[in-house]
Design brief:
The protein is α/β, with parallel strands linked by helices. It has eleven helices and nine strands. The protein has two domains: 170 residues, Rossmann fold; 79 residues, Pantoate--beta-alanine Ligase, Chain: A,domain 2.
Amino acid sequence: MRVSNSTADWIERRRALQGKTIGFVPTMGALHEGHASLVQRARRENDLVVASIFVNPSQFNDPTDLARYPRTMEADLALLARLGVDEVFAPAIADLYPDGYRFRLETESVAGIMEGLHRPGFFQGVMTVVLKLLNLVRADRAYFGEKDFQQLRVITEMAADLFIPTAIVPCPTLREASGLAMSSRNSLLSETARRQAAAFYRILTEAATPEEARRQLTSQGFRVDYIEEHWGRRFGAVFLEGIRLIDNVPLSEVACAAAEPVLAAQGV
């Protein structure tokens, strides 16, 4: 596995990869089994796998959140090597933003809902850095998890609208045994809060309405940012111990979970 720590190094390295199909897994590090599943799929579907590790400052609207985001480069590189990744691109901020944050992408499609509303500047930062990475890596396919479904949707639309040739591949959310969606931020929770966090997925799935989900989550000690339904899914964002967690589930799963108590009461 080769690691490129600058854009100049990577651009030179990329010239040597002609003639091979490339699967790309962009990450912000603090890798877990969810990331591993993306890498494994990329490994199956391409000749080479490239992963990036870059904590993107432009998508954080809270400096404290950026400062405490987990950084585990040594462990991340060891995991990627075990997974058979061929190339890692891990640039410094000055490499991806050589002139600062002068140029950025804007979107109107999601500005007023969920992450676009509650995290000002988030999607501008995400789209800008993803566009830079897609242009640098020039992969055949790039893999993104459905846990960040709104982000996935925005990136998919951006790539299509800007004629980016890389196919954006959605991948299912991986969950811990408790049901909690795997996330780098989970590592910031205490053991007690991590057990409590398991209720997020359960309530998101079982509550009859978004309003009921909000009420139940609040009663169990979560601070709720939003519970909303869009695109056939229910989305939620909550805070626990000051750590922000997001998740989403298809409404078909919500309907099934809501029907189970009724069926049980009817003896079915």
